[in-house]
Amino acid sequence: MENLQSYTWQCRYESGLHDLVDDFYVPALSRSVQYDRKAGFFSSGALVLAATGIARLLATGGRMRLLVGVQLNDADTQAIAEGYRQKEQVIEEALKRSWTLTDDQIAQDRLAAMAEMIAQGLLEIRVVAPIDDDGRLLSQDYAGGLFHEKSGIFTDTTGDRVVFVGSINESEAAWSSRNIEHFHVFCSWRADADHASAQVGDFQRLWSGEHPNALTLPFPEALRQELLQLRKDDVPKCDPLEKSAAEARDNAIEIERWLVQFLRDVPRMAGGETIVESFIPIQPWPHQQRVWKAVRDAYPDKWYMLCDEVGLGKTIEAGLILRALMFSGQVHRVLALVPRSLILQWQQELREKFNLWAYWYTGKEYIDPTGKRLEAPENGWDAHWSIIIASTALARRKERLEKLLEARPWDLVLVDEAHHARRPWTPSEGQANQMLQLLNKLRRHTRALQLMTATPMQIDVRELWELLRLCGMEGRWADRTGHDFQQYFLTLQHDPWTRDDLNYLLNMSHEYFATGGQADERLKQQFCEHSNGGHTLWHQLTRSLAPADPADIYSKLQAHDARGMKELMADFFRRHTPVRRYMFRHTRDTLRHYRSQGLLAEKIPVRKVCDRFIPLGPAQEPYDQIEEYISEKYRKAEAEKRSALGYVMTIYRQRLTSSPRAISETLQRRLESNLGQLEERAETLLEVDIDEYIEDFGEVDETQINEAKINETWMDADALQEENRYIRQFLQKLEAIGTDPKLQRLISDLQDMRSRHAQVVIFTQYTDTMDFLREALVETYGQQVACYSGRGGETWDPAKGRWCTEIKDNIKSGFAQGDYEVLICTQAASEGLNLQSSDLLINYDMPWNPTRVEQRIGRIDRIGQLADTVHIINYYYEGSVEAQIYQVLRDRLDLFQTAVGPLQPVLGAVVKRIERAVMAGRAQKQAVMQEECKQLQQDIARSKKLGLNVDELTDTHIESQEHSRPLCQPEDIRDLILTSQAITANWTLEEHVAGVYTLTERKTDALKTTTVTFRQDILEARPEEVHHCLAWGDPIFAQLLAHVPAPAESRRGDVERISQNGGATVEYVRHEGDTCRRIKSLRELQEALSQCCKER
Fold first, then answer.
1. Residue 761 within any structural domain of the chain
2. Nearest 5°: phi and psi at 294?
3. I need a surface site. Which of 104, 194, 242, 859 has the fewest CB within 10 A?
């Protein structure tokens, strides 16, 4: 170590003329073993100034003594003088008043060095307070010149000293070198040694408490501990204002700006699309990749229908589409219209799987994905959030629709369950329903419309035509009546084709090409391989200027290979329609084909469906009586055009076949209502959903439904009394029955299958039935029984002897991990809970709508199911209407053996068929039942013969896809944010669980804290605890990056940022002589920038 005499010291130093850090403090402290400093009144500014350069002293293991003054006010000195408080307590409080932390990085680095010296026992601080001649403490106004001069003493290994004295400004301006400061310097070996000795003596008297006008006290321990909190993991090795340090800091700041800018630019870079599929906890399947890329590439010119089977991930496709379009900057304002029952599922899936925040508009307020309620603007549809989600029932109301169309246009509208948009198509009616009217108006208020449905058509092929028109289908295909669209597919089935048939088909296929349709190149190859003239024929068929000559084509079909040519031609006509152009449709058979080609590794299980027809036994009599009571009420309501009451009776009837408990609870509530003891909405009491009702039974006035009380005020007193007597009798008979025959069969089945199936999912429509089942099963299964319903999750606590509420995520993860053997669910779990760890599902009751059953099955028969076979068992009361209708469907359609698909038109009428049969009078019931079954069989036969199978019309071909490496990884983002000076100056991040951090905003009066992670799989596993994933899509992520300014220049050394097309595309390159190489990752950029710094 050099000594102090080895450096030439000036007699005076002044900022502006000298670099005080590099010219004075660093040379002095790097040559010293002792540093004594009188800092003035205690404050953060005084400490920062006193700590100038001490990182050099810390590096040599030198020691430091620091004196600080305390600023007492008159109230402080009076309290001490009158004996009210101890002087040590008053001084500590006065010191605390003067202490405020700063966010300045220079200050933080210096205080960190000071904290490290305290921790290592190299720094001691004492407090000096002014006193009068009688030893009484003085306020700062009477302190005199005790702290007017600030001084410092450096001592080296030889005992030589360098002393400085000056009136040094302790403000931020002083220590950040933005104010002129000066001081004088004295050396122990020079002529001014006497001045140096005087300062040494003065400091020693203050330090030892021997000064006549000062009281010296130890530094309070509480403040010492606060200083220790400022330590950093990386021990400072130099002062932040040293030239080398400043240059390194400037380089670090600029590199940080480049790296953060890279993160902002990633979506607009070549390879930036990789973030659509990376950073999420799922690996999209080939068909999902195909869909999102096609929609992205066609936006906004071409709109699509996403029509994959239930359980194949339409919501995943929607999430990927949103990520692609929003991250690339093409879309900023999205509206998602979904059934009310699916809103929470959409919100959860978008946040948990795709890091996208959708805000639910209720009509009165907004609710964010964490449940926080937010105020809506005057026009609720004009909120500033990027993704707004609302129920279709809300949007189609007249007053809401008017406001929706007055709001700012949308970049994209997503519509789930779009098949609800239809018109009756009867000879006397053609009026579009409310949802179809909504979409026809909304399509003119958005840049793009995407429709989603697992049910691409209902009742009539023209309903598919309506949806395709919404997507932009043009020409004769889209004529106002839908005649040509329907006629095309009917003509296609003619065998053989006449000349007129062929002429019609050729003209329609010409319309397809003339309006932008593309030819299937794979089919072209088959034409060319079929005959020598195949290439010419293909050219004739696909030209867009004029249709092919029907006479020429007809003659070719009469040749000796006509059968083969006819099949090729039929395939041509099937593959070149607007259905293929606008619809994506993938089924489980599609995925099995992908697996056979090596494009998919996961299994696609097959289904084994078993029906249980269970005799009612002693329950038959009360069952029949209650059924007659319900049907009588229904028929009376229909006769009086009281549709809402008729609706209530259909729910009664479904609860009857669910379980004795469900109908008992319903009748008990009705009795209480009749007696004036209950006033609740039917919607709440009966566990129904307006959107589901509309899907099952048709449109209804929602106001009527909501006002349909269980009591019927139109009944006179005698009729009401008579009804109450009937209800009491029913309740007594139900109680006398004891148990439910279905429950006995359930217990038997579970016992028999327990060795073959580790877990089982049991579905019922109603919470009352769920409660009934769990009470019976908990005796055998105990804590291994869990429930999920509209109330949320529930598990059994044997210690408390009761059911306890559990969050959905714990139910889902617990079931996946095998913590629960039996999971009993209501319809609330048929969407949003993925339960593929089980391969056995039991339908304890059967909804009238087969699609509801399919949704249940989709909880276990879905992506990720490991079993080769999934087993479904359906329970029916023997002889019930439901049993007979479903038996026809099972016998004729093999219903549920595969997902609901080509014969959907038949299934769309099932609800009404069951309704008519169950509500017929006792005398007519059997005849009505037979007629409905007969009509159902005829519908099935007709649909098989004439029905349109959209699976034959859509393109499912995909090529093997190469996966590019993403431009950065979650760990890269984590490391950058945790070390960013600009971000950490405004926010603190503390890891409290592996991968989970508490994020706190510094500069706010009200402390803003949230929980974050850098990995989407952690958020998905713990969404109620972890609120944000710091990556693209999350609002906090964008907010953090906004704290970091853009780079000062577009080129730094050999590295250049090139922005083109108005910023739509960006690339980073490194120049190497006459060539340049594209930078492909954040880490590569960081290495290139670091190398540039070394070369400068």
1. no
2. -65, -45
3. 194
